[in-house]
Amino acid sequence: MTTREYRKGATTLRGDRVPGTTTDARLLDNAESSDWLHTDPWRVLRIQSEFVEGFGALAELGPAISVFGSARTPVDSPYYALGEQVGRLIAEAGYAVITGGGPGAMEAANKGAMAAGGTSVGLGIELPFENGLNPYVDLGVNFRYFFARKTMFVKYAEGYVVLPGGFGTLDELFEAITLVQTQKVTSFPVVLLGSDFWTPMIDWLRGSLLAHGMISEADVERLHVVDDPREAVDLIVSSNDERRAAAGRPE
Ligand SMILES: C/C(=C\CNc1ncnc2c1ncn2[C@@H]1O[C@H](COP(=O)(O)O)[C@@H](O)[C@H]1O)CO
């Protein structure tokens, strides 16, 4: 018995699964529906293009520190002032500032970096209620997919500074410490700025996660809580210097 067979890239289709038309015939037929544009295989190419564009845009960025924090921090909040100061100090230390490019704490850090003449990066994300990149970004890359964007925050930064924030900020923070815990990234300092905001979370981590044996003391100690933005920057810069020296790569 001969079975009809059709090869579609890596996939072999037989019998009733063989389509009535070929891929290139469908491509050349401009009367066809454009539904295929929204199918998962096509999305993979879009995802791939986000990585290619992100890697291309950031390849020559040089040393950088990612700063996270609430999109809702008002301009007159002390946390906004803290974001601006840390952005400025990062730039003065010769590092680029990478943020999510949005409003609030992200804008504050970009503003500080730009005022200090540093490189101010915004990795924007397509959201239903998005406002576009804040005006203090001078190198912006826009993403459709959170996971592609999150790769850039880790890959191009020497450490994270985390200002008070909501779910988005916690997601970025906990992703970073999970990557450190699972040794996907090594010696990656994570500094939480604003002890009034972060200490209750550290207490909960100890009182619940650590008490139930779900994390170790070393995991909690990876999170540095500080109030002074200079201390936050110094912690990351010195850890980076130590790492470079250990790898035989002086500054
Ligand atoms: C909520 C509003 C706008 C949201 N715009 C954002 N633009 C860029 N990046 C964002 C945005 N919202 C969240 N993020 C990412 O998560 C972190 C902040 O989230 P949180 O829930 O506000 O803490 C931030 O670091 C970004 O990377 C309009 O006000």
Q: Briefly, what is this?
A:
This protein is of the alpha/beta class. The protein is 46% helix and 16% strand. Strands 6-5-4-3-7-8-9 form a seven-stranded parallel sheet, sandwiched between helices. A two-stranded antiparallel ribbon has the order 1-2.
- Report the portion of residues in β strands: 15-25%
User: Would you tell me which CATH topology applies?
Assistant: Rossmann fold
Shape: elongated
Major β-sheet profile = 7 strands, parallel
Number of domains: 1
Overall pLDDT, averaged?
91
Could you name the ranges where pLDDT drops below 50 across 5 or more consecutive residues? none
In helices, the fraction of residues equals 40-55%
Q: Return the string of H and E elements.
A: EEHHEHEHEEHEHEHHEH
Q: What is the total tally of β strands? A: 9
Q: Count the DSSP helices.
A: 9
Instruction: Write out the strand line-up for the largest beta sheet, numbering strands in chain order.
Output: 6-5-4-3-7-8-9
Named at the architecture level, the CATH assignment is 3-Layer(aba) Sandwich
Secondary-structure content class: alpha/beta
Q: What integer value in Å does the Rg equal?
A: 23 Å
